[in-house]
Specification:
The chain has about 425 residues and is an alpha/beta fold. The protein folds into two domains: about 220 residues, Alpha-Beta Complex (Spore Coat Polysaccharide Biosynthesis Protein SpsA, Chain A); about 160 residues, 2-Layer Sandwich (60s Ribosomal Protein L30, Chain: A). It is built from twelve helices and 18 strands. The strands form five sheets. The protein has a seven-stranded mixed beta sheet, with helices on both faces. The chain has a five-stranded mixed beta sheet with strand order 15-12-18-16-17. The radius of gyration is 24 Å and the shape is elongated. The two termini are about 30 Å apart.
């Protein structure tokens, strides 16, 4: 029987004690991107720009919490954009920004100041193509500096104009030491918060400029050409093309793996059984160290099996008393995060519950929806079935429930 402890995130609640925090700035109006509302909430390949951006940080194993800074009028747009992510264990409640980007960042930092994270990454919501490698490079550079930013060296020849209405070239700017700044920009939290407080009222173009004004040491690390910022209306077309190319290249390099999981839990006194994330009324409940969701445990095992990363007990030993009564979605969240951290995706999940009672049929669709929400996939990619053992064995005697699960994941190909 698998009965694990839950995923030991940094300090559990994303609202408290996160060692590394990501702040996503999404309070702008984006007027240069044309009509259609703020660009961060517009669809990109069927999904809000903000959702693509947020998921990159939520799935990164070295990010402990994510906070989005939004405009005071955008809460409904935020909720719609983040559907499927809003219950993510790393996602903190959004904070309200200010009139300018610099104000929004400062207010976002102030909103978690009492919790004192060690480090913070600040990223523009309109850069949805940020990759895990760039995030890691910025984090690595913080070991020896107050700050670090993703950036690209300038290869084009740069001309300075004379500033006239019909400008002419005044001179050519040497490009050897020039870099184009991107985000994320990472900092020691206490130092960048102090720098933003000191810079209040000044107009500085990015957080690195705020850090420079405070005399902080900020390192340049390699960004990515794909890490474009959606600014103009035509950028959406470029973004769709880039996303399509990335999907094609990604698919060509993927391999498909299947994992299998089995779990068993006995009944004990109670009034409901938690099955695949749904509380099913019953005259007994399932016994276990956590909430004993036998279906979710089996599926978590199946995903870890497909990854070749052991089983649920290896990741969350049942001997750990900190997780008594923990919700099993925490385990499944962790399995999903491991798939994302390895550049993969969950393709399909199939769970079979084996019991005489309770009846599963009336709750099947709710179970599919609950699992799909946690896995970040469409309900059509999740199957939940039930069967009996014709009154044979412990399930036939109604002593407990067994579950079997199969998961298919797509992962980048690796050399044998």
């Amino acid at each position: 029987m698998n009965d694990p402890a839950t995923h030991a995130q940094s300090n559990g609640d994303p609202e408290t004690g996160a060692a590394t925090l990501a702040v996503i700035v999404a309070a702008g109006r984006g007027t240069r991107a044309g009509p259609g509302g703020p660009k961060q909430y517009r669809p990109l390949a069927g999904r809000a720009v903000l959702a693509w951006t947020a998921e990159a940080f939520l799935s990164h194993p070295r990010i402990d919490a994510v906070r989005v800074i939004i405009h005071r009028d955008d809460r409904d747009a935020y909720e719609a954009a983040m559907a499927g992510l809003v219950d993510h264990p790393k996602l903190a409640a959004p904070a309200t920004g200010g009139a300018e980007r610099q104000d929004s960042v400062r207010l976002g930092l102030e909103s978690v100041a009492a919790r004192a994270p060690d480090r913070v990454l600040i990223h523009d919501a309109a850069r949805p193509f940020i990759d895990a490698a760039t995030i890691s490079r910025v984090l690595d550079a913080l070991d020896g500096h107050d700050g670090a930013i993703a950036a690209l060296p300038v290869h084009d020849t740069i001309k300075r104009s004379d500033g006239a209405d019909h400008p002419c070239i005044e001179d050519t700017v040497p490009r050897e030491a020039l870099w184009r700044a991107q985000t994320p920009q990472g900092f020691d939290f206490a130092r960048i918060l102090g720098a933003h407080r000191d810079a209040e009222g000044r107009k500085l173009t990015d957080d690195a400029a705020v850090a420079e004004a405070a005399g902080l040491s900020v390192r340049l690390v390699a960004g990515s050409p794909d890490n474009m910022k959606i600014t103009q209306a035509e950028d959406f077309g470029m973004a769709e093309t880039l996303l399509g190319r990335r999907k094609e290249a990604h698919a060509a390099m993927m391999e498909y793996r299947t994992g299998h999981g089995v779990d068993v839990h006995a009944f004990e006194d109670g009034d409901a059984a938690i099955l695949c994330g749904v509380s099913v009324p019953h005259d007994r409940k399932l016994k276990g160290h956590s909430d004993a969701d036998v279906g979710m445990h089996a599926l978590t095992d199946a995903i870890f099996g497909a990854l070749g990363e052991g089983d649920i007990g290896d990741h969350f030993p049942p001997s750990d008393p900190r997780w008594k009564g923990a919700p099993s979605r925490t385990f499944l969240d962790r399995a999903r995060e491991r798939v994302a951290a390895r550049g993969g995706r969950i393709v399909h999940a199939d769970v079979t519950l084996i019991c005489e009672a309770p009846k599963i049929g009336p709750h099947r669709e709710a179970m599919r929806a609950a699992l799909a929400d946690i896995l970040g996939v469409a309900p059509a990619r999740v199957s939940v079935k039930a069967t009996t053992t014709e009154k044979l064995g412990f399930t036939g005697r109604r002593e407990g429930i067994a579950a079997m699960a199969t998961a298919t994941v797509a992962l980048p190909q690796v050399d044998a």
